[in-house]
Here is the input.
Amino acid sequence: MNLKKLWWQWRGVAIATPTATILVVLLRAAGLLQPLEWRTYDQYLQWRPEETDPRIAIVGIDEQDIRELGQAIIPDGIYAEVISKLAQQNPRAIGLDIIRDVPVEPGHTELEQVFRSTPNLVGIRSTLGDNAERDLIDAAPTLAELGQIGINNGIVDNDNTIRRGLLMVTTPEGDQAPSFALYLALLYLDAEGIGPEPVDNTDSWQLNGAVFRPLEANDGGYVRADAGGYQTLINYRGGSELIETVPLRAVLNDEIADDWATDRIILIGSIAESLKDRFFVPHSSKMLALPKSMAGVEIHANITSQIISAALEGRALIRTWSEPMEILWIFLWAALGATITWIQRDPGKRTLLRQMALLVAVASILVLGAYALLLAGWWVPVIPPLMALVGAASGVNTYLARSASQIRRTFSRYLSDQIVANLLENPDNLRLGGEIRKITILTSDLRGFTALSEQLPPEKVVKILNLYLGYMSDVINDYEGVIDEFMGDGILVIFGAPNTVANDNHPDRAVACAIAMQQAMVEVNAAMRANGFPEQEMGIGINTGQVVVGNIGSEKRTKYSVIGGAVNLTFRIESYTTGGQIFISEDTHQEMDTINNHRLAIQSKLEVYPKGIKRPITIYDVTGIGGDFYNLSLTTEELPLEPLIETIPIEYVALENKQVGAQHHQGSLHKLSAKTALLHIKDVEPLSILTNIKLTIQTQTAPLEVRETDIYAKVQQQGKTEQEYVITFTARSPAVIAWLNQQISPTLSTL
Here is the structure.
């Protein structure tokens, strides 16, 4: 396909997609989307089912323990007794999440002895920063001497939430030290014969195939985060109080089972609110409840469980995509938003609603898809692609609005000089308001142009319209008609306003103008052929009646226009026409008989039932006008229906107000001419005269392009039987015309 043509067909998508992507990526790089990304990530974690880990339990120091002991700083002897009782049950590891850098009597000597006699006990050493490269709060000297120390720092994000934890840190002495949680997990896994192994040519390491990669500064929803130390995203099992917890007094008073700690990891730490060792985590913020913090010892338990579960059960670690991959992800959703809007770009409220419904559906897929990926262990961006989706869609609509504005400015050159002159000559005419006046209204419409415009590039559609409207405007001006409005390929013309004179024969002028317009279509189609455009056909409806004419709108935007039932009826009458026809109402017919002595050439007289009209009306198919001022007529050509090589099976459906009906029917074409066909229907339900139908060719001998193309026609008259009708084609593609032409019997004249 020609690149220029391809660009034009998809220009809105090609412009909006990269623009939206770049803007969103810049917003993301500036960190403006980080809070929203964090909140979405937190919500996803909350949506996941909660799960506990029976391998880990907590001995928690709560408010009642403090009250019973009579002090917040618990003596060393109490911890010595608790650790001794737990050690007798043979746990795999005991973690003491309590700072013990100085003695707290009584019982310090007993605690020192417990430290030396409990090889699977791990104490803590705290830093004053996130990565342990600054000053430390020392660990218990005995545990430090024995090397049974882990770093216990959490990493608090700017919104005071802990989403990441440390696995390894570099101490001020230059040593690599494990975190408190990692140390406990390694003690547990050692009993399973599992230890850390390096991953070739990387800074990562693995446990039984579970690879632990260090978090980088821009991973997930983070932007330029401090990634010092060996960090990981914490894969929380749930909210607070999920890990089994017993109070300190339960151990002291022997209220736990004899094997409660056996083969488990037991953490000892504060859970009391008053001890200030609680933090916000992703599960803390609930939409309809106050935030609930999590104790620091519970956070260590979650990290420990995460490491063990990954090594033993393959539980997913939360991973992130590379930055180029995330940008591509944003680009794809921007492209999707732009494409949906571009494809659904036909004007109208229903189209806008359809666009919105599709975008909401696609956005839901994005949100739920990202959640499904998180369940599989991947944190992918949600807010940036969502913004790109909406931004690209908005960009396309902005582009379309700008294009529509340019087209409207182009059409504004055809506004009537009479209206402008009338308003300028009398300043009072600028005021809002109107008057009741009897006028004649003419409306015209190109047959099948809507379907044609969907097949052509916009620039060709505009050229065709400009060419057509240019010829029609000249004719309308010749007959002193006032162009009230261009409606795409339709024209609304009024006769008898704003200027009026006594005995104004506006019905005559309207009918004469309509005939002249149909005659001008010969020149229009000659120009169409010269420019390589398809030929056009026009239908015209005319009605005379009382309407409100005047300035309608507001002080900021005013339009000289007409309003009333007579206008609506004119559109109804025009809808019954086929290409080349002029239908006038009974009111116009009577008005012309009353005013002037002239002759109307009428081909037929029909009674129709327009929607919204309580009674049937009579319309006349006019082919000429004579009299004192006009002598105009249309050339009618007889196009006999020719037999076909074989009948053509079709499927048809009736159109109601340009909407496709629900019932599909079967029929067949038996004869053809250049513009008409003889239709046989199989259903006993008859078709009404002047009904619009949409039909498709059903025979397998027709090319796929022909079978998949809609054909539009109007029921013109009853045939010889109740199931036989003559239809006039109103819209056909060139491929359909060519194929139908080949179906006429070669022994007879061709189309």
